[in-house]
Every structure is written in structure tokens, then in C-alpha cells.
Amino acid sequence: MEVNTYSDLSHKILFQTECYSARQKRVVLLALLIFATFYSTEAYDPLDPNGNITIKWDVVSWTPDGYVAVVTMNNFQMYRHINAPGWTLGWSWAKKEVIWSMVGAQTTEQGDCSKFKGNVPHCCKKTPVVVDLLPGVPYNQQFSNCCKGGVLASWGQDPVGSVSAFQVSVGLAGTSNKTVKLPKNFTLLGPGPGYTCGPAKVVPSTVFLTPDRRRKTQALMTWNVTCTYSQFLASKNPTCCVSLSTFYNDTITSCPTCACGCQNKHNCIKSNSKLLHKDGINTPKKDNTPLLQCTHHMCPVRVHWHVKINYKDYWRVKVAVTNFNYRMNYTLWTLAVQHPNLNNVTQVFSFDYKPLVPYESINDTGMFYGMKFYNDLLMEAGPFGNVQSEVLMKKDKDTFTFKQGWAFPRKVYFNGDECQMPPPESYPFLPNSAPEGSSAVTELTTSLLLIIWLLW
């Protein structure tokens, strides 16, 4: 019998334990508990445990056959944003509701509105799909925090840009708190799959302040929908990888082979191919299929961590992010890193930096992102498809060491997706006979090898 779900599997295991001894039962139940833990935490991000996208509906007025609501989308994720072509929000109506009009957004389809005479609704579909308006739409179609093409910044990078909103007038719905039925089956694409939305829940009504901040008004009814992200749902393979090098070892640890899967191995383009000069080669496809440069790792993005210099009280790291996708410009890119010495960051050059403290007692995670109008855009693959920075960190005498791979990050996330790290046994090691101070010759040799390798 084939087992397709976690529930079926648990029942099968529990049934089989009837034939086991008490000790064997404990072992099997422990294994089931561990499996259930991993199964239930697929959408849990340990570096951002409270990160989610919350969609809030505020009913602000009643109409003869329904209500007018303000829908606000807040991205509370610290380092995961929604980039172009933007978010897509969908749901199912509980009754036979229609959308009379919208401001600040629009549905992708009108649906069958043939039964309406005179005024025709904006959308008559049972399952409407809503997208943001593009920048520059006429003023009478705009709403506060709208019209950004669906781009939603992360909370940690740009709190102001992490909000999107629109207004919707709903008809054939209830006209009181007791008769309104909440929409169901919410879906969120950002812009691809990965988000899972829970059911709508009625919450205390939102309180608004008037522009002069002297009077408070209150929504007639409010409900929330919470959507969480799972990298497993977004892609079965990683979307980035990490390579490593140091001044004290000539070895350059490259990304693992096929780190991001090798499905595109036969459709990749070499860096010197004449096809790159063809018109339209860099035009993004509607399904966002990448056009990758041929590499052994076949990843759209590579993050390189180079331990550069060792001073008496400080040490310096160079970080380089390279784009291997000829059809993708990464706007508002973010790089989240977990490393034990990030609690002593002294200076970051040419990147913005913000510490992340997911747990009060641990301060080992930070977020790097580009400076506005300088390097916050990671260009498509090619000579300009990389951004670089250096990080200066103060040594902690009690914990600092270059041995056993301590100088390398534990986890690296690019745009909120965890990157594939090399296996620990392949990390550049500290020679037993060499001091931990930097050697000018070794550093020069490694730097030259690094430059040649990065240009390859």
C-alpha cells in the first residue's frame, strides 16, 4: 500500500507498533515525533521566526448591498521581499459577492457579468485574482501605498515600502457585522509560489487617526489573514550557493556541483557566446524561466565569502554576490548571514548593514543590502552582474579563532532563500605550522587566484 500523506504514514507506523515490545514502541514513537517536527516546520525560518505577510481587511462603510473595505498588505519579514512582477492575491467569496469597483488595484479578469443591467461590476468571478497597479496611473485610480507594480520591500530593509494597500467596494454581501461572510481560501504569489495563507479571522477593529492626529475613527469590522513562506514550496532546489576562500590557504572552496540542480545544464549559455549579442536575449519570460551562464553549480546567484586580512584586534572579510542569470535584475536584494562574530561588526563598506536579533540572548545574525541609488540593483549576468563589500569585525578574545572553519558563515540567505553551503570537510583549513597572522605572500597569491576564479 502506498503512503501519500503524513497522516497515513503515522497511522501505519502506530498500527505496526502493536507487534513491538515496549522499548521498540518508544523508539518508533520517538522517530515519529522527530519526523512530525521536521514535517511541521517546513515554513518556519529560524532566522526570522516571526516573519510573515499579514493581509488586513477593514470595513470602513456600509453600502445598500454590501460594504467598502480597505485591504492592507504588510510584509513583516525581515529580509524577504516581493520583487517584480509583484504580488498576486486571490480568494473565494463565501456567497455570491461581486466587486463593484476598486481603487489602487485591479482584478485580472472581469468574469461573467451578463446578469447585471445598467451598472456592470468590476469583477463577477467567484475566485477573483487581484494585482497592484503600475506606477504612474491616473490620480483618481490611486490609493495610499498603492501602485508600485506589486513590489513589496522587506520590513528590515524598508519599513515604509513594506506596505501595499487598495480599496474595494463589495456588493451582494452582508450589510452588518452579523451578515457579512468572510472570504475563504486565500492565495498569495510573490511573484511565484511559496506562500501559504491561513483562514481569515475576525480581530478587534482597527483604529485610525485623522490627518491632524486629534480624532480617532474605527473600522466597522476587521479581519486578518496571515501568509507564511516555505522555500520548499517555492522551489525544490536552492536558488543560490556559497563559495569560500581565505588568505591562509591557497584552496578555493567552490560551490558544490549542481548545487541548484542541473535541469538547465543543456540550455545554459557560455560567458563568451555570440548569442549574448542577440536582440531580446535579456528579456524576461512571463513564467520567469532563467537563462543561466554555464557553470558547474548552475545557480542563478553565488555568494563568495573571502577571509581577507587578520589584524591584531580586528579581521576583515570580503563578500561578493554574483548574478549568473541573463534575464534577471535583482532589485532590493538582501543578504542575511549567520556568523558568531557578527555581534562585533565594526564597519561595513559599500553595503548597508542591520543586525537581526531573532532571539534576545543571541546576536549572531545580520542583514546586508545595497545602498539606495548606488548598488541596490544587482544587474543581470555579465560584467556588471556583481556587488561587493568588505566587513571589519572586532575580535572576541574568548571565542575568536580561525580553526575548524570558524571564520565562515553558518547560514547564508539571498533574498530570503537559504543558499547551498559547501560540505564542511571541503572548507579551507588553517595549516598546523602557520601562525594565525596574515602572510603578505600568501594573501597576494590567494587574491590573484580569487580574481582569476571570479572572472571565470
From TrEMBL:
It is found in: Cell membrane. This is COBRA-like protein. One of its GO terms (cellular component) is side of membrane. Residues 239-428 form the COBRA C-terminal domain. The gene is LOC111465782. InterPro entries: COB_C (IPR056900), COBRA_pln (IPR006918). The keyword Cytoplasm does not apply. One of its GO terms (biological process) is plant-type cell wall cellulose biosynthetic process. Belongs to the COBRA family. It is a lipid-anchor; GPI-anchor. PANTHER family: COBRA-LIKE PROTEIN 4, PROTEIN COBRA. Keywords: Glycoprotein, GPI-anchor, Lipoprotein, Membrane, Signal.
